[in-house]
Design goal:
Helix content is 71%, strand content 0%. By secondary structure, it is mostly helical. The longest helix has 21 residues.
């Protein structure tokens, strides 16, 4: 008999390793697992666990599509994935593209809270343990951008602080923090962070 969807998903996760985009053989396994959805046909695992693994497969396909520069396909897939902050994140990215800054910021904040990016290493559900991991620096920077463009200085400051805490060397992140501090009357901090933004920009040019 052909391997069940759940088993195919586990094999695909194993072959993906820590890759941001799974290798082609892993993607083929994910695609087959997502299409078969034959969880009732296996004695190797509980039906409910198998269904969770099918969702893991769909999640990998959606995130891989986004990282592969195919956002329309990514959003189509991720909208149908239940039980993962990636679904909220996808909705936020669509709101961002539509310049709905407040909605994007709110949804990004929800996703970050669900991922608990301020508490590294905290994962409990199958879809989180075996699914693709967010880049804490990148996602918190996206949140900072949305808050900044929407004029929510307190939100932009909180988000940019989190991005920098998670290792951001992006000069724009430092600029967002500096500008937010300036708008909130934190002049000394703002001047210091403007200088750091300039340093980061210079470093990026030097490394490029």
């Amino acid at each position: 008999a052909a391997p069940s969807s759940g088993l195919l998903a586990i094999l695909a996760v194993a072959r993906s390793g820590n890759a941001a985009i799974p290798p082609p053989e892993a993607m083929r396994l994910f695609e087959t697992a997502a299409q078969q959805t034959d969880c009732a046909a296996t004695d190797l695992m509980q039906d409910s666990f198998c269904r969770e693994l099918v969702e893991v497969s769909r999640l990998w396909m959606g995130v891989a599509a986004y990282r592969g520069k195919n956002p329309a396909e990514a959003f189509r897939i991720l909208r149908a994935v239940e039980g993962s902050p990636w679904k909220t994140w996808a909705a936020a990215r669509q709101a961002f593209a539509e310049k709905s800054w407040s909605q994007a910021a709110s949804q990004l904040r929800q996703a970050i809270t669900a991922w608990r990016l301020g508490e590294p290493g905290v994962l409990s559900r199958t879809i989180d343990l075996l699914g693709p991991k967010p880049d804490p620096e990148e996602v918190s920077h996206e949140w900072a951008q949305a808050e900044f463009l929407g004029g929510n200085w307190a939100g932009a400051l909180a988000a940019s602080r989190l991005s920098i805490q998670r290792g951001s060397k992006n000069s724009y992140t430092w600029f967002i923090r500096a500008r937010s501090e300036e708008m909130l009357g934190q002049t000394a901090n703002a001047m210091e962070d403007y200088a750091k933004a300039a340093q980061a920009a210079s470093g990026n040019r030097d490394s490029g």
